[in-house]
Amino acid sequence: MPPTWNDVKTALLDFDRAGLRGLLQDLYTASKDNQAFLHARLGLGDDQLQPFKTTIARWIAPDPMKGQSISVSKAKKAIADYKKAIGRPEGLAELSIFYCEEAIGFLESCSMDDEKYFAALIRMYGMSPEILSSLPLAQRSTYFERLGRLRSRGRSVGWLVEEEFNSFGMMRWTSSRVNERSFCGTRETNEAGESITLIPEAAAGSPVVELAQQAGWIQE
Fold first, then answer.
1. Sign, Cα dihedral of 16, 20, 23, 25
2. Distance CA 38, CA 27 (A)
3. Domain range annotation of the chain
4. Pick from 65, 63, 90, 60: which is nearest to 76 by CA?
5. Per residue in 150-209, pLDDT tens?
6. What is the pLDDT of residues 171-180, one digit of tens each?
C-alpha cells in the first residue's frame, strides 16, 4: 500500500532543523502552487490572493490564441488550496466571486457549449452567499453588489444562467441606500399601500434572503 501521512511524520523525526529547512526549501522551489500556499499560510507578500487568482484566470478563462485549454478542476483547486493554506472567509469570498467574474467574462467573449463549465459556474455562484454569511454584515455589501452585476450579465451568456442565478435569491441593488435595495422578483404595493418585496419561491430560505431579513432589508 502507498505511504501515508503517518509514514511521513515518522520519517521526519530523523531530520534536524537544517534538514527540515532544506526539505521546505525543496518543496518551495518545486512548484508555484507550493509557493502560493506557503506565502498565504505565513502571511507573506502584499497580495496573498494574487497567485490563486492567476491560476483561476488561467484555467477558467484561457487565451484561445495561445492554444490554452480550460480546466474547471484546476481553477477550483486554486480555491481549495487557499482554503487549506489559510481559508479566511473574506479571501474565499473574493476568490469565489472572482472565479464567476472570470468565467462570465470568458463566456461573453468566446461562445462555447460545455455543460460542465456552465454547471460549475452556477454552483460557484450559489456557494458565494454561504461564504458571505460568515462575514460581518458591514463587509458584505461590496460582494453582494458584484454578485448582482454578475446576475445581470448572466442574461447574455445563455444556458439559462440568469435564471439559475436568480434561483439563489440574489439581490438586485437599485441604490446605494440599504432600504432601497430589492431582491430579484419585484417590488409591489400591498393593500395597505406599503412597499413590499416579492421573493421567488425558489429563493425562500436561501442564505442571502435570511441575511437580508436579519439586516432589515426586507420583512417577512
1. negative
2. 10
3. 30-175+195-215
4. 60
5. 888 888 887 678 788 877 654 443 333 333 344 444 444 556 555 444 444 445 555 555
6. 443 333 333 3
- Amino acid in position 85: A
| Predicted model pTM | 0.72
Residue type, 111: S
Instruction: Enter the C-alpha cell of residue 143.
Output: 460582494
Residue whose cell numbers read 456557494: 127
Query: In whole angstroms, what is the distance from residue 38 CA to residue 15 CA?
Result: 20
DSSP 165-206: HHTTT-EE--SSSGGG-EESSEEEE-TTS-EEEEPPGGGTT-
How is residue 74 written as a grid cell? 484546476
C-alpha cell read off for 186: 419585484
Closest C-alpha to 32, from 13, 54, 16: 54
